[in-house]
Amino acid sequence: MRLGYAWAVFVKEWRDLVSNRLLLGAVVFPALVFAAIPTGLVAFIQANDLDPNQLGQIKEYINDFPGVPAKLAAQGFIVTNFMAYFLLIPAMVPMAIATQSVIGEKVARSLEPQLATPLEVSELLAGKTLAAALPAVLATWTVFVLYGLINGAVADPRLTRFVFSEVWLVAMATLVPLICLFSVLMGIVVSSRANDPRTAQQIGGFVVIPIIAIAVAQFFGGQATFTMQQVLLGDLVVAVLIGGALALGSWAFDREAILSRLA
Amino acid sequence: MIVVEGLRKDFGRLTAVHDMSFTVGDGEIFGLLGPNGAGKTTTLRMLAGLIAPTAGGATVNGHALGEGSQRIRGLTGILTESPGLHDKLTARQNLAYYGRLYGMHGRQLAAAVDRYLGVVEMGAHADRRVGGFSKGMRQKIAIARALLHEPEVIYLDEPTSGLDPSAAKTVRDFVATLRGLGRSIVVCTHNLDEAERLCDRIGIMRGTLLRVDTPAGLRRHGRNPTVRVELNGARGPESFVHLLAGLPFVLGAQPREEDRALLVEVADPAGDTPDLVNALVGAGARISSVREAAATLEEVYLRLVGEVGERDATASGDRDAPGVAA
Known about the structure:
Largest sheet of chain A: none
Oligomer: heterodimer
Order of helices and strands of chain A: HHHHHHHHHHHHHH
Number of helices of chain A: 14
Strand content of chain B: 25-35%
Order of helices and strands of chain B: EEEHEEHEHHHEHEHEEHEHEEHEH
Largest sheet of chain B: 6 strands, mixed
Helix content of chain A: over 70%
């Protein structure tokens, strides 16, 4: 693979994204929503006294925060428990960008002139993948940092430490980019075979179901947040899925198949 | 130089192109004429290294399709059927992107972009997004994109589609200058007039090449050279048919009472016309004009394409004609 060619594709895709306000909104909006809900709850708890009965209902969760006042433990539970939804951003956002990128080009018939150049399919896909994944990773990281800082400022500085825990720093550094990559690849696979963005996004939407399932299982399993072992296991599982998606992608995004479908 | 030998492309059970063989020399413009679905675009895609032939092969400037496809793509410029531009980018950004994909950088790239924006008279719109361009403006940018990297081989699919007459002439003139620079050029078009004016040779195709010849050669196809004699007198054309049948150099004669003319088939119009005129005047004809009557390219095209259409329909029991595809 020649990096210069992939970079040229990346720059073009990035320009395309930046000039597409609707798509840019789709990148930023979910991240802000996921961060705003728990932050609002934390601020609400901060401004009000907690009912001891309510504290009793979440007793098993606040046990994960020993040695801190019950009110802070409840805030800590909310802040860390909602963080599982941060994994939805890298699953959802790149999927939207990738499907728009491939199907948008199919509809505009701009894939053929690109495929008619010396550009290899792998270089085209690398550029598109990076351009779709990077905004989601940057959005997730930015909101993660803001989330930690704002909750610390709104309630208690110790909330910042709960957010920036070792487990979540590792999850942000590894799991988030891996989920992004998997999501982009699945977006490309689906888009290669579909000619309608809505169909592609509906099929692609299935990618986020396992992540929602993990978040729900974590809550009902009585865990405030993930453990390091779970994060590393998640890395492994997503890496294996990426391997499968790569194989699927090289089959689906075939130069000839794409052009035949355009014909 | 392009050498095509027995090229065939199947899409599943559908044969788009078969038994295509032709050559295009350096500095030659070769036209591919055919109805929709005749396989013109499929042929171009194969020759441009975009899709692989099912059988047969071709060499483009010495590089064989298949293992040499990436090199072929590098030395080829293609104007695709649809401009396929990136709407959110400006005209300059579109061209610069493709320049990079063809391995151009820095000043060389910037100079080429400026030059070709000028060639297609789009310099004033260079920094506008192409999403707001008219069809003709988009076509101009797509033409500039195909030529930006100074390709040795150029494929143009409907190059003047959507252009006004003045812009179309600019493009035709520019394509003609590329011929002078020794480029091999293949033009797909429905525009018979354009093909006749631009192309050195024309291949009429429908699934395969039906005939390849110069425009003049095609016009002569299937019939003897014909001299049209228009009469202006009391005697009608019918009255001269018997006389003409007795002349040794006349191969056939057809009176056209409705426009008072005789269509006379001869072997050598330049040599036989004076004797023909002498014979008619000697028999009392009053002649108002004499000229060689060649078939138009349109007549030849419709005859060839129609014959194959009828043959295919008969052979397949009026089912879809084979060879009609993408």
